[in-house]
Amino acid sequence: MRVTKMHGLGNDYIYLAPAREDEHDWPELSRRVSDRHFGVGSDGLILALPSKVADVRMRIFNADGSEAEMCGNGIRCLVKFAIEEGLVPPDRNEVTVETLAGIKTVAVFRDNGVVTAARVDMGPPSFDPADLPAAVEETGPVIDLPLTIDGVDLRLTLVSMGNPHAIHYVQTDPAEFPLERIGPLVEHHPLFPRRVNFQVVQVLGPGEVRHRVWERGSGITLASGTSASAVAAASRLRGLTGDRIVDHMPGGDLILEWDGTGSVFMTGPAVRVFDAEWYT
């Protein structure tokens, strides 16, 4: 089976364009290829499939085999993959992608004819906790929701970008936060019946933040596009940042834009690492 490894800011996935959607047990394959010792090594598996309502359809499976609604870094790479594999016309400057979080429009940027980056219309954020879902009684926005996890006091801002996010703001470098310990406890907390992505964010100024993320189903990753989009929306909602920010993550920087209404727009790179044959 031919597989392609790609990444956006180190958030890496294995890409396939299967002839039939039912030809494999995708959750099991995702667990196997994602293993960084016995597989290829990745944060998950992404399928490029035909769509009746868009140029291409994306299915994404996390490293634990669970299926996610969307992936911001993954969708940029998916569009690059679709163009380079001939799934969409090679001269397209805009590609629509069907996801479980709705249809997303992706504008591509080229360098010497090669797709190197993309700007994604991530859709509007929702601050209604029912959209995550989260087991809270208020209708939202939910800001500074108190939650104590293993002795650590959190104040969570809840955002849905078609997938669920819980954001905790800190005054110091997020690298100092015990994300390895607290992340999985937040992800699996009963407050979030479908689990949650957990972000730790430091605001550096009105146009700049730094954050780390524990991703639902994958653990700590170097970057997350939907997380960065949620952080941009939450930070502007709280009056901490303006309409445009640079989000510094361990894997690199994303540019986020949200004017307080409508869609969040995310811009970042897309890199093809290698193609290989999967035998096991």
Keyword list:
Diaminopimelate Epimerase, Chain A, domain 1; globular; 280 residues; 41% strand; 18-stranded mixed beta sheet; alpha+beta; single chain; 4 helices
Description:
This protein folds into two domains: 2-123 and 268-277, Diaminopimelate Epimerase, Chain A, domain 1 (Roll); 129-262, Diaminopimelate Epimerase, Chain A, domain 1 (Roll). By secondary structure, it is α+β, with helices and mostly antiparallel strands. The protein has helices at 26-34, 72-84, 179-187, 225-237; strands at 2-8, 11-16, 44-49, 56-62, 67-68, 94-99, 102-111, 114-121, 145-149, 152-160, 164-169, 197-205, 208-215, 219-221, 244-249, 252-257, 265-269, 271-277. The protein has an 18-stranded mixed beta sheet that branches. One of its GO terms (cellular component) is cytosol. One of its GO terms (molecular function) is diaminopimelate epimerase activity. It catalyses: (2S,6S)-2,6-diaminopimelate = meso-2,6-diaminopimelate. Its main location: cytoplasm. InterPro entries: DAP_epimerase_AS (IPR018510), DAP_epimerase_DapF (IPR001653).
Care to count the β-strands? 18
Mean pLDDT: 97
Number of separate domains: 2
| End-to-end C-alpha gap | 9 Å
Largest sheet: 18 strands, mixed
Strand coverage percent: 35-45%
Global shape:
globular
Q: What low-confidence regions span 5 or more consecutive residues with pLDDT below 50?
A: none
Number of helices: 4
Spell out the helices and strands N to C: EEHEEEHEEEEEEHEEEHEEEE
CATH homologous superfamily placement of the largest domain: Diaminopimelate Epimerase, Chain A, domain 1
Which radius of gyration do the C-alpha atoms yield? 18 Å
Q: In CATH terms, what is the fold-level topology of the largest domain?
A: Diaminopimelate Epimerase, Chain A, domain 1
Q: Helix share of residues?
A: 10-25%
Which secondary-structure class do the elements indicate?
A: alpha+beta
Subcellular location: Cytoplasm
Family: Belongs to the diaminopimelate epimerase family.
Subunit structure: Homodimer.
GO molecular function: diaminopimelate epimerase activity
